[in-house]
Every structure is written in C-alpha cells, then in structure tokens.
Design a protein that fits this description.
CATH architecture: 3-Layer(aba) Sandwich
Shape: globular
Strand content: 5-15%
Strand order of the largest sheet: 1-3-2-4-6-5
Largest sheet: 6 strands, mixed
CATH topology: Uracil-DNA Glycosylase, subunit E
Helix content: 40-55%
CATH class: Alpha Beta
Structural class: alpha/beta
Order of helices and strands: HHEEHHEHEHEEHH
Number of strands: 6
Length: 232
C-alpha cells in the first residue's frame, strides 16, 4: 500500500499552490528559463521526494534549485549540488550512478530517500519561515510513509530544524535544549538518529567548506547508524 499512497502524496505536492510568492517565482523561472536550458520544458511545480520507499536513510535538503529540480522535477537532479550529492552516494554504494540529469535517466537510490524541507524553489534560496511551516505537513506525511527509516541526514541548518520540528509535531522525545546544527552533529530524535552536514551547494563545495572527503565521512556514519539500528 505504500507505493500508491506515496504516488498520491506526490501528486498533491506537485499541485500545491499554498505559497503565492513561491508559486509566482517557480512559474516565472519555468517560463523565462535561462539560455543554457532554453529548449528544456521546465517542471515549474512542487517537487516531491524520491528514492527507495524501504530506505533506512532519509536525506533532507533545503529546497528545489531554480534551474535544477524546478526544471527537472526531481530533487537534486540537473544541478551541481546534485552532482556532488549523487557522486558521494554512488561511492558509498547507495546510488546506481554518480550523476543525475533528468527524472528518467535511470538513477536508482538504494536504502536512501531524498526530501526537501521546502518543495518549491524560493527566490535567492531563502524561504520565509511561514513558507517552511506551510510545507511541513508534506514532510510529516512523506515521513509517515517511510517506516524503515532509522537515520536522517540534514543538509544545512534549515533542514536540521525542519526535521526537529517534524519530530516535535509527531511527539518524538527530543533532547533539551534542542541540539544545534553543525557539520558532523549527531542527535537522537525519537527513534531516529539525526546527522548534520553542510549543504552540498556550490557555495560550500567550491570554497572548500565542504569537501568530498568530509561528506563521504558523514555518509559513512549514516550507513553505520542505519546498520546499527537494523541490528538493535
């Protein structure tokens, strides 16, 4: 029953128009495009999660990129952030290929499911708090359909807070005070282990703030925690 319910939720996410500013922006970008993608048909809608519905690891990103997922319709697909992310997942044996350029390019994730704290591309990659709050129910509903998840890898502070807020909404016990985001941070969030990493954005990867080795180490920790949870 999980697959039909996920499909129905994904259709709802794609059709969502709850945030007027984000709807206007995502559609403007999809209409005006950029020169290098002039011939592409943009998705221009809300972007659902994707991956292995039996995953033990959930990766939480910030939001679709304007000319990445907002164009392709799949999180981290068709942009440099995704190049960095999928290369690392492939090295760890969690993705079937190291790159992803389109929804139908054959990429398959193993034991990983990817979601966004926000499902529409925000101007300047800066969502307003009320926009994140409106999107929160999609995170709640998608997470509820992923019963095997043991580890959550949050890419950046907004994703970290989004998962802690989700855990609080579903009544999961949380540490007090709430754990702060940091690269390599680890926290217990109810039955889940929450891990933090700098976001895989070019702002971090091209400046050396986040290197492949640093991210590989976090992904390895996620795999270890997932295996530990499976044995418990």
């Amino acid at each position: 029953m999980t697959a039909p319910r996920l499909s129905a939720l994904h259709r709802e996410i794609a059709a969502c128009r709850a945030c007027p500013r984000l709807v206007a922006w995502r559609e403007k970008v999809a209409r005006e495009k950029v020169a290098r993608f002039r011939q592409h048909e943009y998705w221009g809608r809300g972007v659902p999660g994707f991956g292995d519905p039996h995953a033990r690891i959930v990766v939480v990103g910030l939001a679709p990129a304007a000319h990445g997922a907002n164009r392709t319709g799949r999180m981290f697909t068709g942009d440099r952030s995704g190049d960095f992310l999928f290369a690392a997942l492939h090295r760890a044996g969690l993705a079937s290929q190291p790159t992803s350029v389109a929804r139908d390019d054959g990429l398959a994730l193993r034991d990983v499911y990817i979601v966004g704290a926000l499902r529409c591309a925000p101007p300047d990659n800066a969502p307003a708090p009320d926009e994140v709050a409106r999107c929160a129910r999609f995170l709640d509903e998608e997470a509820a359909l992923l019963p095997r998840v043991r580890v959550v890898l949050a890419l950046g502070a907004i994703a970290w807070r989004a998962w802690l807020d989700h855990a609080a909404r579903v009544g999961a016990p949380l540490p007090r005070p709430r754990p702060a985001f940091a690269h390599g941070a680890r926290a217990e969030a109810g039955a889940h282990v929450l891990l933090g990493s700098y976001h895989v954005s070019q702002q971090n990867t091209q400046t050396g703030r986040l290197t492949p080795a640093m991210f590989d180490a976090v992904v390895a920790t996620a795999k270890q925690e997932a295996e530990r949870g499976a044995r418990a």
